[in-house]
Amino acid sequence: MILILGSTGMFGSRVLRETRARGAEVRALVHSEAHAAAVAASGADVAVGDLDQPQTLTAAFAGVDTVFVVTPMDDRVLERETNALNAAKRAGVRRIVKLWGAVRHQPGEELDGQHRASIQALRDSGLRWSLVSPNSVMETSLLQQAGGIEQASMIFGCAGDGRVGLVAADDVGRAASVVLTDRDEQGANYELTGPEALTMTQMAEALTAGLGRTITYQDMPETAFRQMMVHDVGIPESAVDTAVMVHFAAWKRGDADLVTDTYRELTGQAPTSLAQWVAANRAAFEAPAG
C-alpha cells in the first residue's frame, strides 16, 4: 500500500492519479470529509487525517509500505513532515519518498532550512527514503502571470537574465509514480527538469508563439515585483517571500539553471517543453468569450 499525502494539491493529486494508473494499491490522505468524497469518486481508497493533528493519522498510515510526503510550502513544513515521519515509524512503514526541490537556495533561508532538517530526520529514521526534486514548475511560475498576459500582454518578474529548467507538474507526478512503484535506491535524489533552461524573455517568446500574439517580459525591481504579487496577484503578505520571491532570487543568481535527464531515465519519455505546455494550457491565458 502506498499512501499519498497532499492528495488534493498540485503535486499530490497528480502523483495519486499516475500511481493508480500504474496499478499500485494506493490510499489518499485528505484533510476533510468534503475532500474525501471528491477523491473517493475517482476510485481511490481515502483516509481523513490532518498533519497538524498527529493523533488523527493512525488509521491512514496503518498497513502502509511507502508514503509520498508533500506538505504546504509554508513555515510549518518541518512540523508537519515530522508528524508524518513519526506516524510512519509507529505504523511500521518501510519507506518514505519526499518531495523537495532542485532549485538551490541560500543558507539561512527558512523554508530551505526546514526541508533540510526534515531530510536529516529521514537519514536518522532507520527507514528507507528517497527524494523527488522538481525544478521550478511551469504551473506555479506562469499561471500566476495569466492576468498580466490577458490584460497587458506581458509577464513580470525580477529574475534578470537568469535561466530556469522549468518542469511540468504532470511530469513530476508521472516521474514520482515510477519512483514509488519501481525504484528503491536508498537516499537517491531524483532531480526533475524540463528539456531546456530558459530566461523569462525566452518564456515570453514561447508564450508569443503559443498564444499567437506578442508577449513581452518586464523585469522589475524586487520591491516593486513583490508589491505586485501581493496587491495584484493576491498572494498573502505572509507567504509571498516563501512562495515567490526566494524562487525569483534563485533564478536571478543562476541557481535554477539546471537541466537533467532524470525524467527520461525514469519514464522513457521526453519531458514536456514549455511550447508543449503552453499549447495544452492556452485557455488559461485567454479572456473568456463574451
Automatic annotation (TrEMBL):
<dbReference type="InterPro" id="IPR051604">
    <property type="entry name" value="Ergot_Alk_Oxidoreductase"/>
</dbReference>
<protein>
    <submittedName>
        <fullName>Uncharacterized protein YbjT (DUF2867 family)</fullName>
    </submittedName>
</protein>
<feature type="domain" description="NmrA-like">
    <location>
        <begin position="2"/>
        <end position="238"/>
    </location>
</feature>
<dbReference type="Pfam" id="PF05368">
    <property type="entry name" value="NmrA"/>
</dbReference>
<dbReference type="InterPro" id="IPR036291">
    <property type="entry name" value="NAD(P)-bd_dom_sf"/>
</dbReference>
<dbReference type="InterPro" id="IPR008030">
    <property type="entry name" value="NmrA-like"/>
</dbReference>
